[in-house]
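PROTEIN FOLDING TASK:
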Amino acid sequence: MADSNAGSSAGGENPVQMLNAVRVIPPNDDPKWPLWRYVQKVAKTGGGKGGNAKIICRLCNRDITGSYSRVKTHLLKLGDGGVKPCPKVTIDVLIQLKSEQDKADASSNTPLNIPLPTDGNGGGRKRKASAIEASFDVDTRSKLDALIARMFYTAGLPFNLARNPWFRQAFMFAANSKLGGYVPPSYNKIRTSLLVQEKTQVERMLQPIKSTWSSKGVSIVSDGWSDPQRRPLLNFMAVTEDGPMFLRAINTEGEIKTKEYIFQRMLETIDLIGAGNIVQVVTDNASNCRGAGLMVEQKYPHIFWTPCVVHTLNLALKSIGAARNEEDPEYEHCNWINEVSSDAQQIRNFIMNHSMRLSMFNEFSKLKLLSIAETRFASQIVMLKRFREIKDALTLLVVSPKWSDYRDDNQGRAQFVKDKVLSDLWWDKVKYILDFSEPIYSMIRAADTDKPCLHLIYEMWDSMIEKVKTIIYRHEGKEEYEHSPFYDIVDKILQSRWLKNNTPLHCLAHSLNPKYYTQAWLAEVEGREAPHVDEEISTERNKCFRRMFGDGPELHKIKQQFGNFSLFAARFSSFDSIEDKTYLEPKIWWGIHGNSAPELQKLALKLLGQPSSSSCAERNWSTYGLIHSTARNRLNPGRAEDLVFVHQNLRLISRKSSEYSSGPTRFWDIGGDSHDIFGGGADFLQHAVLSLDEPELEAMLDDLQAE
C-alpha cells in the first residue's frame, strides 16, 4: 500500500518528492487547510457537528484523534498540543510543510474578490495603455489607489488620515522595497508586540526632550476623566516650552479620590520626573486637587501648586451669567444675562429638534448651529458668538414664507423664536454680553494653549479687569468716578477669583519679565508700577525666593542679583541691556544679558517657559476618547494608556519637524470630517499654539479640506 510504505522509504528522497508521494487531495479539499492532504480521515468521532475525527498520518501511520489544529501540531511539531510530533518530518520536510501552511494563511487573509472600479468590468472594451502609461505602470498604481480608498470607506476612516505622515511612509516604503509575499501584521501582533515595540521606540525618541528638563523646568499638569466604561482615570502630563508630554493615565476605579490619594499619585509622578526639575503642579480648583497641591508644597517647598487660570476664568464667567433668585439683590442687575443665554438655547434647540426648521436654516447659512457642552470653557460666550455670526441667516429664516407655512409643530414656540430673532433689543443685549465679556474671553483664549504664559498672567488679570470696567462704563454712559452696581458685581466676582488664583509664583514670574521695567510699558497705563516697586508683587516674590533658596548665602546671592536686574545696576546698566528689554522676547533677553547673574538667569529661563493652565491635560482626554471610544470600549485601561502614550507623544515629536507645517502632511493631526469642532469631540483642533475656539481654526480646516 503506497500510503504505508512512504514513511519508511522516504529516507533517500528529497522533501518535495517525499511529500508528493504521500499527498492525496481529498474530494472536499480546501486550500486554507493544506495539511489535510497528508493525513487520512478514518471516521468522525462523536455525534455533534464539530470537526473532530479519527485520523491516520500518511507519513508515520500514527493514529490521531482531533481536528485540524492537532494535525498542524503533529506535522509542524508545534509542541505539546495533546499529540506527539511526527517522527518522519525532518527539518527539510518541516520547512516545506510550513511553507505550504504559510501560503494558505496568507491567501486566507485576502479580502473577498469584489471588483474594484479600476478592474474594467463595465462591459466596455478596455483601452490599451500608452507607452508612457505602461512605463509608469499606471494601471497598477490606480488599482492600489482604489484599494486604499476602499480601506477608508469600509473601515469608516476619517479622510484626514491621508495626511498622516506614517500612513504615507508605509505605502511608499512598501512600493519601493522588494517585499514579495509580504503580509500585513495580524490583529494580535498590532495590539501586542508591535505596540510594545513602538512604545519603547517613542520613549527612546523622547530622551532628547527629557534631557532639557533640568534647564528648562517642568510643569506637571493633571486632570480627571471617565472612559466609555465609566472607569475614572487620572491623567498626568509633563509640560515644557517644547510642548506637553503624556506620562501616565491611572485607573482610579474603586478608589476615593481624596486629597491624600491624589497626593500619592502626584508624588509618584514627581519621582518619575525628578523633584529638582519641577517648577509647579497645575490642576483645576477642586478642593481635593487644591489639598493635594498644598501637601506637595509642604513636602517640596520649591514646587508650587498653581490653579488652572482658564478654569478660574470660566468659573468667573459662569458666576456672572448665573441665574439669580428674585430676592437676590443682584437679580435686577445680572439676571438678564442668564435670560438672554436661555433664549439663545431655546432658539437653538427648537431649530435643531425639528428637521424641517433645520433644513430651512441650512438654506440660509453655511455655518452650523453649535452644540456646546456645559463642560466647555466659556460655553455661553461661544454660543452667543455663533448666534451673532448667523444673525442674518436667522432673520431670513423667520421672515421666509416657509417659516409661517410650516405648521406641523409647536406654533407658540415658533412665534417665540421669531419674536426674539426680530427683536433689536434682544440683539443689543447679546452684543453687550459679548462686549463686556470679550476681555475675559480673550484671556481664556490666550491661556488656553500650550504656549508659556505664566509670566504674563499677573499683568493680564490687571489689564482684563480694567478693560471690562471701561466697556461697562462706556455702555452705561458713566464717568470713572461714578457708581455702577453692575460693574461692582462683576468686579467683585473677578477680584474674588483672582485672589484664589494668584500665587507667589505668578508674582515672581511677572518680576522676571524684562519688559515690565521699560518706560514704554509703564507709560501705557497711568499709575502703572514696575514689579520691584509694587508692594504685593515684592512681598510674594520674596516668599518665593525664601522657599526656593532657604535662608543661607544662596538667598542673599539671588536677592543681590535681582536687585541689580531690577535697578539696572552692574552689568544690567549697559545700553544694549536696557534697550533690548523693549524689543526682545523675555527668554531671549535673559539668554543674551543674564550671564552676569547666573543663578537668577537659570531661574528666569525656567519660569518664563511654563504654562498657566491644565488645558493640555483636558485636551488629552479628546485623544483618549478618540482611541478608547464607544466603538472600542473593550480596550483595557493599560492598552488604552499605551495607545494614548504613543499617539500623543508622536504628535509632540512630529510637530518639531519642518514637514509638520508644509507639504502633503502639514497639520496632519488637526481636524477631521466634523463640522462641530467646538463640541468637545475627539476631532477638534489640538494645535500647540492655537486655543480651541480660535476663529482662524475654521478657515484653516476649510483650507486643508479644500486641498
Notes: The first strand starts at residue 39 and ends at 44. The two ends are 71 Å apart (CA to CA). Strands lie at 39-44, 53-57, 63-66, 218-226, 232-240, 243-251, 278-283, 304-307. The CA atoms of residues 563 and 643 lie 49 Å apart.
